[in-house]
Write a structure and sequence with these properties.
Chain lengths: 447, 318
């Protein structure tokens, strides 16, 4: 801890846990996956209204062509990630665990839209006005790639009466195992810096901080080295702690500001974007390249070659697992995302979505939940809750459907980081019940 | 010494008497005028506080009954017509007799007829599981099988059948209080009229997917083939969104639809076991007959095709 202090590392102050980091694929450079035979692209890969399909079965599409248009403001465009013929437009199981309307495309050749700049050159000049930047990001269908998949252009439109003075770039990647953001920061530092500048211009702020955890020291040093070239951007190391990548925790760690209950980061004078999203925004604005591919970490202790793969949206996960050395025989669970907040997938041909940051393979014997014992009232969940809530109480209130009290005790402030379930010595499904309570409250509000 | 004791006792008695007088005066002055019938009505009600009437407990319901001008819209599903009659007599108002209802489980997707995809080992609660993903087994509309309805039932009228993994309603105990209906996250439990002489026929499926897709996941799914619609003489069955529905009011309980259903998803309860068996046998026979007919047709088609082939090969020679 003294060492952390000497290095000038910051951290958030309420609760938190430190699971084993297991960043197995940190050394693996980003590898481009060969084109899949076919892709399946769900039309709801974001929070908000589903996009409206604008192609028909049998149509020929190019890479980057819009195949579903956003409906309403909180929604996002969907683009073809491969060129070829549109196949079935039907409900398909996706990474959320439910069947969603999806467009399948059978790959043929690799023909791109003419407007897309495919050269790897860095474009530093930003000739666009803030409105043009927001429009370009909206057209490109960029969504938050850290996991929540919130349409990015919505975040760029600051509500009236709010003053924002900081842009925070989230390079924390506090989930164990995942290294996708880490590799992007290492391999595309200039692009991230330019992307950050684009966003600063769009938001009209002159200060930006890139927050990175200390287990990615090479990324911190790399970005710090080039930071002087880009005025206004500061790179800040952070002590390794989960869930530091949570928006509210990161703001507290970097600026010491607290987002009020039920409020947005804009209420604390800042906007937070993930580095992966920043990279996509750079691509969208400077290269006219819509969000059609992303970096996905394929990892796990049983995986032969834990890797970071650049894949087209809609590629079936089986292709990625094959590229990482094949499916180990004893695999019990495949998790989309990290081990703390990720979700187990129920089929092998589920497509990669815009917000799929990683695939984690867990062997059978480690994949089962352990036996649940009675609560011993040890208070560990209260101690680790980064939002200062009382998870044990909230879970019981939710279980007994005492929703009013649960709401009065701040259940809606829960960020679902799972620290409580992780730390519980009785293996109680605390977060499951809190989510249950939250969904019941949302249902009651809706009706 | 004695004197002190006497004074103390006297003082306490005097204080007690004074307090009693004050309390009596206050209770008379601020007396709440309560309808004397309220207590009688409350006594007549079952006092299970299940909420099936739509009020938060029996006393709230009794209050509403006493203050109501017309009793027709009110009904205690637990007590049924008997209790309501008693209430009507107490209040001196007419009641409207209502058909008793009972909960029915509209899913026949037992463990062995649905495709097994994954194993769920999280918290044993249907709502949590169904919020998380589409479920362990095929058909995301079907029963989750973790028994939240059984837990919600306060009358012990439900249990989980271990062989099928589906909940079963014990009709004699079911009071149609609606608790299981609201508990079920998949909305597969419905209140259905108990029926003429307790007999009823309903379709045990809620899947609105296209026939082929639904059947792939569950071999008992209703595909909306409308064979039952053709068979029904009383126009009681309609197909909407690839799902058949029986109109209770029009159904004459003839049982022809049961024979017509390919998958045996039309459920009848309250009939004599012999009757149910005969219907099932008839269904089997019909299916066999159809199978045979199809086989014959295929053979015939084959023969025709072969004959044509011969004709074609004959032609060049002639």
């Amino acid at each position: 801890m003294l060492l952390d202090f000497m290095k000038g590392l910051k951290h958030f102050h309420k609760g938190g846990v430190h699971p084993h980091e297991n960043k197995l694929s940190a050394e693996a450079p980003i590898k481009e996956l060969p084109l899949p035979k076919s892709v399946v692209i769900p039309i709801t890969q974001h929070i908000g209204a589903p996009a409206k399909v604008v192609v028909e079965r049998g149509d020929t599409v190019k890479v980057g062509q819009i195949i579903a248009v956003h409906e309403g403001f909180v929604s996002s465009n969907i683009h073809a990630s491969v060129s070829g013929k549109v196949g079935k437009i039907d409900k398909v199981m996706d990474s959320t665990g439910f069947k969603k309307m999806s467009i399948s495309i059978r790959t043929k050749d690799d023909i791109w839209e003419d407007s897309i700049d495919r050269t790897p050159d860095l474009v530093k000049d930003i000739p666009y006005t803030p409105e043009e930047i927001v429009k370009k990001i909206m057209e490109a269908g960029v969504v938050g790639m850290g996991g929540a998949a919130f349409p990015s252009h919505v975040k760029l439109s600051i509500p009236e009466g709010k003053h924002v003075d900081y842009l925070i770039v989230n390079g924390v990647e506090c989930e164990p195992y995942l290294t996708a953001d880490h590799r992007v920061m290492l391999e595309k530092p200039h692009e991230i810096m330019v992307g950050t500048q684009i966003l600063m211009k769009a938001l009209g702020v002159d200060k930006a901080i890139i927050g990175i955890e200390a287990n990615k020291w090479d990324a911190i040093e790399g970005l710090k080295k080039i930071a002087p070239e880009y005025p206004g951007i500061e790179v800040q190391g952070l002590r390794v702690m989960y869930p530091q990548g949570g928006e509210k925790q990161l703001i507290e760690a970097l600026l010491g500001r607290e987002v009020p209950s039920g409020g947005l980061p804009a209420d604390a004078g800042c906007i937070v974007h993930n580095v992966g999203t920043i990279y996509s925004m750079y691509m969208a604005v400077q290269k006219n390249r819509p969000l059609i591919e992303r970096v996905v970490t394929v990892t796990g202790k049983s995986v032969k070659e834990p890797s970071n793969l650049l894949v087209r949206i809609g590629t079936p996960i089986s292709d990625l697992i094959e590229a990482a050395g094949g499916l180990p025989e004893d695999t019990g669970k495949i998790i989309s995302g990290g081990p703390m907040m990720g979700k187990a997938l129920n089929e092998l041909d589920i497509p990669i979505a815009k917000a799929t940051s990683g695939l984690l393979l867990i062997p059978e014997e480690r994949s089962k939940r352990q036996e649940v014992y009675n609560c011993v009232k040890c208070g560990k969940c209260v101690e680790v809750c980064p939002m200062g809530l009382q998870p044990v109480e909230l879970s019981l209130l939710s279980k007994n459907k005492n929703l009013e009290t649960a709401q009065a005790h701040g259940i809606l402030d829960c960020i679902e980081c799972g620290s409580c379930s992780f730390i519980c010595p009785s293996n109680r499904p605390i977060l499951d019940y809190i989510r249950y309570g939250k969904s019941n409250i949302r249902k009651a509000k809706a009706s | 010494m004695n004197q002190e004791l006497i004074y103390t006792v006297l003082l306490l008695v005097a204080l007690g008497a004074l307090a009693a007088i004050i309390l009596y005066w206050v209770s008379q002055k601020f007396k709440v005028q309560e309808n004397p019938k309220l207590e009688q009505v409350l006594e007549a009600l079952p006092n299970t506080n299940c909420g099936g009437c739509g009020f938060p407990g029996c006393s709230a319901f009794a209050d509403a009954l006493v203050n109501a001008d017309d009793l027709a819209p009110y009904n205690c599903p637990v007590g049924g017509n008997e209790v309501m009659k008693e209430v009507g007599e107490i209040l001196g108002k007419a009641i409207e007799e209502k058909d008793p209802f009972v909960a029915v489980v509209k899913c026949a997707g037992a463990i062995h007829v649905r495709v097994h995809h994954t194993t769920y080992d999280g918290a044993a609660n249907c709502s949590i599981a169904s919020n998380l993903y589409s479920g362990e087994r095929g058909c995301s509309d079907g029963c989750v099988g973790l028994g939240e309805c059984v837990e919600a039932c306060t009358f012990d009228a439900m249990y989980m059948d271990e062989t099928t993994g589906l909940p079963v309603v014990i009709e004699d105990k079911c009071t149609s209080c609606n608790a299981c209906v609201t508990a079920c996250p998949k909305d597969i439990i419905e209140l259905w009229p108990k029926g003429k002489r307790d007999k009823k026929i309903y379709i045990a499926c809620v899947n609105e997917e296209k026939g082929g897709t639904a059947r792939k996941e569950c071999s008992m799914a209703c595909s909306g083939c409308a064979k039952c619609v053709d068979e029904c003489k009383y126009d009681a069955i309609t197909v909407e969104n690839d799902l058949a529905k029986i109109d209770y009011d029009l159904c004459k309980l003839c049982g022809k639809c049961i024979v017509a259903c390919d998958v045996g998803n039309i459920v009848s309860t309250g009939f004599k076991p012999e009757m149910i068996n005969t219907l099932a046998e008839k269904r089997e026979k019909r299916l066999e007959k159809e199978k045979e007919a199809k086989r014959l047709e295929r053979e015939k088609a084959k023969e025709v095709a072969e004959a044509e082939k011969e004709n074609v090969s004959d032609k060049p020679e002639s």
